[in-house]
Amino acid sequence: MRVFVIIISLLITQSNMLLAQGGDKSLAFDGIDDWLNCGTNSLGISGSITIETWVKGNDLQPTSYGRIIDKFNWNDKAGFNLVMEFPSSSGSAMFDFFATDGSENAVVGATKINDNKWHHVTATYDGNTMKIYIDGQLEGENIVGAKTIKASTNFLGIGNNNDGNQWFPFNGFIEEARVWDVALGSEEIRGWMYKDVEASHPFYSRLQGYWKFNDGSGSTAKDDGSKIHHGKLTSMDTIAAWQNSNAPIATNLTNSLEELSAVWAAQDSSASSILSIVDTINGDGVIIFGHNNADLSWNWTEVPDKNIIERRLNRVWRFEVYDTLKGEILIDLTTLLSADDEAVLLVSDQETFTNADTVSAELDRFSKLHVLNHSFKHGQYYTVGVKVGTANGLIGHYYQGYKIDSLGHISFNGLTKSFTRLDTIIDFWNGGQNYQFNPVPGWANNYSIEWKGYIQIKEEGQYGFGTISDDGSQIFINDSLIMDNGEKQWYDWEDNISEGDTSNTPFPPFFLDKGYHKISIRFYEDRSLDGIEVWWIKPGDIDSSDIPWYGKNFNSGEPPTFNPNTNWELIPKNVLFTANPDTIITSIGRYEEKDILPATIQLYQNYPNPFNPVTTIGYNLPINNHVKLTIYDMMGKKIKTVINSLQQAGFHKIAFDASNFASGVYFYRLQTNSQTISKKMILIR
User: Fold this and answer.
1) If exposure means fewest CB atoms within 10 Å of the residue's CB, which of 19, 336, 361, 618 is most exposed?
2) Close Cβ partners of 637 (under 8 Å, ≥ 6 residues apart)
3) Domain boundary among 595, 616, 636
4) Which of 129-138, 146-155, 373-382 comes out lowest in average pLDDT?
């Protein structure tokens, strides 16, 4: 199991602080004589209708009904209304209309909406069935058959109205009132109840009245729907009636995000891009979240602590939370992580993620990050980071011929070094096309493998590309092209290599400048591939003798020795050839290298063993020490002293040449001031 952490920043900047949560403003109605008069114009409602709004009612309702949105006329038996029932009845919502056949038809919800909490109330009629939804959940249904809603000449009132006999004032707050000439389904209701209606709504053209109540002051509430039913504040204080709202509606900061989603009691799973909230929502509130639409690429600079976090995603999610909620976050990282990567979830009060605390999380075997029982907080930003020394450019790759392990260390016959990523110089993008297999023209029963994608060069210089098989043996290039904007920038090797050629063929580096380069790497292959080798030369050093050659066994034995100015890595096949298009699949770069001193003296098995006639003996010293290394035969006779001197702490290795000795078993003994260690080796002539 891989262990992961969430990082939560505590720094709040004024630019990102919310002055008021929710949909900015609402209208307060006193339950006496307040109301919004939207005129007598027809809404064009006859066969189908949807009425929806956010309400916060209380139990001080003075009359049998508090009219929320109303165009009812009792005397004419015409019109429709959405009301809050008097507390002595149920305090629930009721939808009522008169039909042209003289019938009155109604449906009632179950949840009390007079509890001083915000509730989303929706009423629909589709020409056959009346429905009422509370907080996105269907609570009432009445099949009344095909009817036509009788047109009313009464005022359209919000918060109150006179049905021809008496007034029915509503006591509470109203926010985001909408009237449609179509019956919305549960998907449209749930998908848009917590955000502004925009032109992308599938029924935007059917919106007949829309009052956001974000005017903030004055005597008019603007209609943003048909734009002809502007409301006049009547018997209301044109300043005090406008109240800051904490209804769970996206603010201006959140409305600008992409893939805006929400979860609440009736909608406990939702996703925005690769981040989901899933199935475990506990609480009465609402979470609204979306992302900034940035690429799923890595940011190497804006991280909490560069000693801990190597990089983070540029894509950032913002969360707005109403009430207290706990639940599970799941982030699908299958196309973004390499084997052994340690990802973290970064949570911050600012988009730059520069300060952080930690909360535990786990990554499953499908590379999905789970954050269980997370307490959501309003106004936070979320993204994914990768810890320093992990796989995307480190673990499982090779550096200077050595394979880097899961600790970010190189261990080779006693040599132990730690590596910390300093920067990145190449990002690999799949760029819309994964690898493919192609027949090699004229070569029976053989194929080439071709990888096509993009590289982003972050430091200009000399770069080379090659391949290696999973058994460490040579694979040579029969065709390689470097393309930049569709033009060949390097040459084709196909004419220079003959069938069956197994010579060690160097592929010289070439100059690449900063920016994106479209690349095609094609190579002959009749064995299993381990990955693609990439090397780079420091600027100004283009000596071809520094370039690694193919045919070296990098998985066993001592790797080749290169000039220190030459660096190279092997990008594993499972990293390079399994990513989805248009994502960064791996990165390579420079590292800070440090020796790791052992806690105790360590003597390693010689290699190779058995040997003929030369072998290497390695040992590690935790402190400076006097060292004596001696060789003995089977009878215990000393035959050679290899070293006898003061040596510094760290790893040491020395070659022992047995050309003058017969085949057999020998012992080598390491003596220091405090310890003696012996091991056996076998010489076979």
Assistant:
1) 19
2) none
3) 595
4) 373-382
Do 234 and 311 belong to one domain? no
Residue whose token pair is 């060949």: 488
For residue 205, report the phi and psi dihedrals to the nearest 5 degrees: -70, -15
Co-location of 60 and 178 in the same domain:
yes
Do the Cβ atoms of 121 and 110 come closer than 8 Å?
A: no
In terms of domains, do 7 and 58 share one? no
Question: Is residue 399 a part of any domain in this protein?
Answer: no
pLDDT classification of 468: cutoffs 50, 70, 90: low
Question: What confidence score (pLDDT) does residue 618 get?
Answer: 84
* Residue pair 507/496 in contact by the 8 Å Cβ criterion: no
E strand or H helix at 138:
strand 137-143
46 shares its domain with 191: yes
Neighbouring-strand partners of residue 342: none
- The DSSP string of 173-198 is EEEEEEEESS---HHHHHHHTTS---
Structure tokens at 256: 């600008």
What is each CA distance from 584 to 393, 429, 461, in whole angstroms?
11, 4, 21
What DSSP string describes 210-245? EE-----SSSEE---SSS---EEEESS-TTTTEEE-
- In this structure, the answer to whether residues 432 and 579 fall within a common structural domain is yes
Q: Are residues 55 and 202 in the same domain?
A: yes
What's the whole-number mean pLDDT along residues 506-528? Answer: 61
Highest mean pLDDT among 164-178, 242-256, 519-533, 536-550: 164-178
Cβ contact 312:304 at 8 Å? no
The position carrying tokens 């594993």 is 572
In a domain, 406, yes or no: no
**Which of 319, 369, 326, 372 lies closest to 348 in space, CA to CA?**
319
pTM above 0.90, yes or no: no
- 606 in the same domain as 502: no
* Residue with tokens 């990567």, as numbered in its chain: 341
CA angle 89, 118, 289 (to 5 degrees): 145
Tell me, yes or no, whether 206 and 306 share the same domain.
no
The tokens describing 337, both together, are: 């992580």
CATH of the domain at 87: 2.60.120.200
d(CA 552, CA 471): 11
Please tell me the number of Cα atoms within 13 Å of 10 on its side-chain side: 3
What percentage of the chain has pLDDT greater than the value 90? 27
Strand 104-108: give its sheet, edge to edge. 104-108, 93-98, 80-85, 65-70, 157-158, 35-37, 231-234, 220-221
Q: How far apart are CA 148 and CA 46, in angstroms?
A: 5
- What is the dihedral angle through the alpha carbons of 200, 206, 208, 212, rounded to the nearest 10 degrees? -20
Task: Note the helical H segments in 30-150.
Answer: none
- Please write the tens of the pLDDT for every residue from 307-326: 678 788 899 999 888 877 78
Please state whether 38 falls in left (phi above 0), alpha (psi between -120 and 50) or beta. alpha
Close Cβ partners of 365 (under 8 Å, ≥ 6 residues apart): none
Look at the block and give the residue holding tokens 């300060």. 355
Residue 204: phi and psi, rounded to 5, are -55, -35
The CA distance from 380 to 388, in Å, is 24
Question: Nearest Cα to 172, choosing from 88, 250, 241, 96?
Answer: 241
Domain hosting residue 612, numbered range: 602-683
Report yes or no: 430 and 581 within 8 Å, Cβ to Cβ: yes
CB contact at 8 A, 253 and 15: no
- Closest among 103, 113, 59 to 83, alpha carbons compared: 113
> What is the DSSP pairing of strand 207-211 with strand 171-180?
antiparallel
370, 387, 404 - which closes a domain: 387
Domain count, the chain: 4
Q: Residue 409 domain-assigned?
A: no
